[in-house]
Amino acid sequence: MKPKFLFLRQGFFSLVFLLLFAASGHTQKVTDGGSGGLLIGYRQVDVDGFQASLPDIGPALSNSFMLLGGEGYSMFNRFIVGGKGYFLGGSRVSWNGPVNNFEGRLAGGAGFFNFGYAVVNQQKLLVFPLIGIGGGGMTLTSTRDEDVDFDNVVTNGTGVLPLETNVSNGSFLLDFELGADFFPFAGGYGLKLGLRAGYTLALRRDRWDYSGGEIRNGPDGNVGGFHVSLTVGGGGFE
Question: What's the helix, strand, coil split of the chain in %, to 5?
């Protein structure tokens, strides 16, 4: 596992033990409130379809992405309603072709409406399963990585040569997640430390597009995958 994702895994399990230990002495129950925060974590994506759009001489794309975004929710009588959105970035490759040099960048994002229920509702600790309904996608941008003459960009009225191409795959998504939030200060208000882990399921995988229209007869594309993240923010419950 790459170092930048290894620290996330270690931080995730460390925070699990911290949450359980810190909340062990707090049993006062809460039912209503709200919270929000930043998300930073790790997300897997099946990149086989995008890999098929690159030349055989190109290097392999990574299926590991940094997740960066935000989330928030309100709780009413232990029922949770909220949302989250995030950006995915981290896979960049370059290769030398027989004539030109190229660079490929794979990035994307997703957004969800979330619904859940607090199975643990202590004043300083909430634990809740969530189901998210939303959508997302990934785009692979392939660019000529070199300087070019103007005459090679616009050619006698025949149009623009493909200095850059974009290949995209998107889908409706279902997200299944387990969350835990810890409020360290007295009264259950203020700073929040939390974690999230789950799996995102892509409901449609066969839609491919490029900047000029739809790509027909494309491979199976799955923008779903496993994810884990840490969250830092604030909120309060009573």
Answer: 15, 60, 30
Domain with 59 in it = 3-24+34-237
CATH code at 13? Answer: 2.40.160.20
Domain assignment of residue 174, yes or no: yes
Q: What is the pLDDT of residues 23-60, one digit of tens each?
A: 555 567 888 989 999 999 989 888 877 777 776 666 77
Q: 72-75 contacts: CB < 8 A, separation 24 or more?
A: 72/34, 72/35, 72/36, 72/37, 72/233, 73/34, 73/35, 73/36, 73/114, 73/116, 74/33, 74/34, 75/30, 75/31, 75/32, 75/33, 75/34, 75/118, 75/126, 75/237
* 107-117 tens-digit pLDDT: 889 999 999 99
CA 129 to chain centre: 18
What domain count does the chain have? 1
pTM: 0.78
Residue 196 lies in a domain: yes
The answer to whether residue 29 is domain-embedded is no
Closest to 50 (Cα-Cα) out of 225, 208, 199? 208
User: In this structure, is residue 64 part of a structural domain?
Assistant: yes
